[in-house]
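Format notes (please read before filing issues)

Several people have asked whether sequences and structure tokens are stored in separate files. They are not. Every record keeps both together, in the order shown below: the sequence lines, then the token lines. Line labels are part of the format and must not be stripped during preprocessing.
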Amino acid sequence: MNSVLEFPCLKPQETDTEVLQLFAAECIQENKESVIQMINALKQPDVTYIIETITFKIMSLVLAEKSKGSIVEYISSGTYYKLTQLLIEGFQSDPDIISSIPKRV
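Then the structure lines:
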């Protein structure tokens, strides 16, 4: 993992998806090289598995230093799920990652 950015301290409001989108975009930019390296290292990569593994590692690091109450708040508000989905979808649609996927013969 290259790095994990500081997750916003305040719980985003339901309509405040821009903060999550910006955070996800920065995480993807910082960590897409790790995804590409894993894809290139495997003979028959399962790209979905690689992307989900990196995403859940990022999410665990995001919540690592949060209090139990903050974690419960992020999960119950849907913020955790939204950010996870934004990361997965962002990695899957990144042109550099797509171009690194070997073509099947």
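For reference, the curators noted about this record: The chain has five helices and no strands. Residues 43-105 form one domain.
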